[in-house]
Write a structure and sequence with these properties.
The protein is of the alpha+beta class. It has 2 domains: 109 residues, GMP Synthetase, Chain A, domain 3; 62 residues, SH3 type barrels (Roll). Helices cover 29% and strands 32% of the residues. It has 4 helices and 9 strands; from the N terminus they run H-E-E-H-E-H-E-E-E-E-E-E-H. The strands form 2 sheets. It has a 5-stranded antiparallel sheet with strand order 7-6-5-4-8, covered by helices on one side. Strands 1-2-3-9 form a 4-stranded mixed sheet. Strand 4 and strand 5 form a beta hairpin. The longest helix has 18 residues. The radius of gyration is 20 Å and the shape is globular.
């Protein structure tokens, strides 16, 4: 079975993140408007800063060029998971068992599309959350029916300094137009061949 783009890039990015002391949180290859984006999301126990994003960006650039897993032009973005980190992989659920999460469904159930509760359990097919002390919802939360599942945003204490909460800022991101660099590399190779 052929791997999708995100899986191929995950295999390239994981050892690089490990070497840099980072946690590879997620990899997504998505189209937004007319553009494609390869988003590599990293994390770290004491929080991700812009330097971590830049270091990962530089470290993965060469291996991505060498493997060349994506045919079309795209933007490469390296970012932190942010405050409302999306939970999609099993290890994400392991990290947040017993924590408050919010779930957005593809279709409304009983007039609601969004539910908040405590993550109780998960398996390959479903996620169990406790909405209150008496209610556990499992069938409702089949993974195939979930649009987005993320850590619930908690109120931040605004009396702390930025450095003490740097891991809670979602906007750490490095990005560049990868297609331009790829085209420049191709032009150099063709120029050498023609000489």
């Amino acid at each position: 079975m052929k791997k999708n783009t995100a899986s191929v890039v995950w295999d390239i990015a994981k050892p690089i993140a490990d070497e840099l002391g980072l946690i590879l949180w997620d990899v997504k290859f998505v189209k937004e408007g007319a553009r494609w984006y390869l988003r590599i999301t990293i994390d770290k126990e004491d929080g991700v800063g812009i330097d971590d994003c830049v270091n990962m960006h530089h470290a993965i650039d060469g291996p991505l060029d060498e493997a060349d897993p994506i045919e079309q032009a795209y933007n490469l973005q390296v970012q932190s998971p942010g405050i409302e980190r999306e939970l999609s992989r099993d290890f994400h659920f392991d990290c947040y068992l017993g924590e408050k999460i919010q779930v957005r469904l593809i279709k409304a159930f009983e007039g609601k599309r969004e539910y908040k509760g405590i993550l109780i359990d998960y398996d390959n097919d479903s996620v169990t959350i406790a909405i209150d002390e008496e209610t556990e919802m499992k069938e409702l939360l089949a993974r195939s029916k979930i649009r987005k599942l993320e850590k619930e945003l908690e109120k931040l204490d605004f009396n702390v300094t930025r450095n003490e909460t740097k891991h809670d800022y979602p906007a750490y991101s490095g990005s560049y137009e990868r297609s331009l660099k790829t085209v420049q590399g191709m032009l150099k190779k063709n120029k050498k061949k023609n000489q």
